[in-house]
Structures are given as structure tokens and as C-alpha cells.
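Quick one, T. Sequence first:
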Amino acid sequence: MAATANPARKFTAVPASLVSLKFDFIAPGRVPLMWCLIAFIVTFFVTRTIVRYIRATAHSDKPKKWYQPRNMSVGGSNGFHLHHVVIGVVLVLLSGVIMVTLAVDGGVTEFTVTAVFFGIGAALVLDEFALILHLQDVYWQEQGRISIDAIFVAVAMTGLLLLGLRPIVFSDLIDARQQGLSYALALTFGALQAALAAITLLKGKIWTGLVGLFVPFLLFMGAIRLARPDSPWARGRYKDTPRRLASLEKAKRREERFRRPIIRAKIRFQELLAGRPDKP
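C-alpha cells:
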């Protein structure tokens, strides 16, 4: 008699790692963070779409329908313009207070819902980060580009956290507690890494310094390599002596050859996503 096929045998040939990858790609503890990031990105794109539409139709004489986006104002036609950063600040504060309250006995579901509102509020705040920084409405001016930079940084940092990476100082303290090591030793390494991060940032390498908080090797490379020519480090140290002036000239050549094309590509990408600033 022919042996009957065992239906379960089909599944035994599939590696367990592939099955677990589907379910364990995002750890359960990071599910709220995942939805926070999704809400952040979606809110940014929706907000930019709305404000670009308002900008494109600002000089139109046609009366707007009730469903067409328009600037928010308080007090009618003689009132003041309500920036969406205000709504973002309120959402961030409320969701932050709720998260602190849930920290005692809150579940994943509650944290996920609150994290969504936090992501929405954070996107609204950072989309007008330049307004907060300059204390004036520079949304469509050249200074407004820093808001897009802040969005990029927030997405990158949250993405690294979502992948399970931790900032090096906190990672050292957590590992010390788990392995029974001395907190003093962990703080020493943390202080060294923080010093490397400070040097890297002073040299004008913002992305290297921020990502290096999660990948220490980048901090070491950023700290020993030449600074950008317009950085605080270069202005304070690349002068007075022929050797230091030669370092400044080398930094300028490197900036023109390598970094300028990257900056131009980044600006084109920013304008594609967020719109082009007004010309002076």
C-alpha cells in the first residue's frame, strides 16, 4: 500500500527563521513606536500637501468650497493666523501626559493609540520647527528648510530605535546593570563617547554625530577627520599656523568636491517633498 502523504510535512521543510521573521520583525515592545513613526510620516505628507495647495491657490479669486483647505484663523477675518504647530504642541503635551500615566499599568494597545497621537503632534511641531527657532514665520523662506532637516533627523532616529538600536550611553548603562558591571565604568565609557559625539558635531558633521550615537565607530571617524570649513571647530582651530591653514584649505577642497553635490541633491529632494522656498 502506498504511503499517504503527511500534510504537516510540507511545513517542516520551511526554515523556522523565515516563519519567525514574519512575526518577530518588530518586537512587541516596539509596536507603539512603529505606529508613532507611521503616524509621523503620514501626518507630514498630508500637512505638506495641504499647505502646498493653499499656497498654490492663495491668489485665486474663486471662492473656495467648504471642503477645500484654507488657512486656519481665530477671530474671523480680523483675527490671527493659527499655525498648525499650536495643534502639534497640544497633542504632544496631552499624549505625553497620558504616556506617563500609562507607564504604571498601561498595555500595548493603550500605548499604541497614544503613540499615534504623539506622532501626529510631533510631525505638526517639527514641520514648523523653523518658526519656533527664528520666532517668525519663515515657512516658505530659505530658513524654513531647517524644518525639513528636523523631519529627516526625527525619522532617522526613530527608525534606528525601531530596529532595536539604542543610544550608546543608555546602552552602556543598561548592559552594565544586566551584566553586573560597575556603573562608574559604564559612565566612563559613556562620557568618552559623548565627548566624541560633541567633537563630531562641532566639526559640522551633524548626521555623523547623530547616527554615531547608535554606531560608535562613526563617532571615532568623525572626531579624527577634518572638520567642515564653516564649522565652529574650523573657525576656532584652523588658523594662525601654516599647518592649520593648510588643513582649512584641504577641508574647503573636500567640501567642494564631495559635500556640495550631496547638499544640492538633498535640496532638490527637499523641494520635491516640501515645495520650493520663495525667492528673496
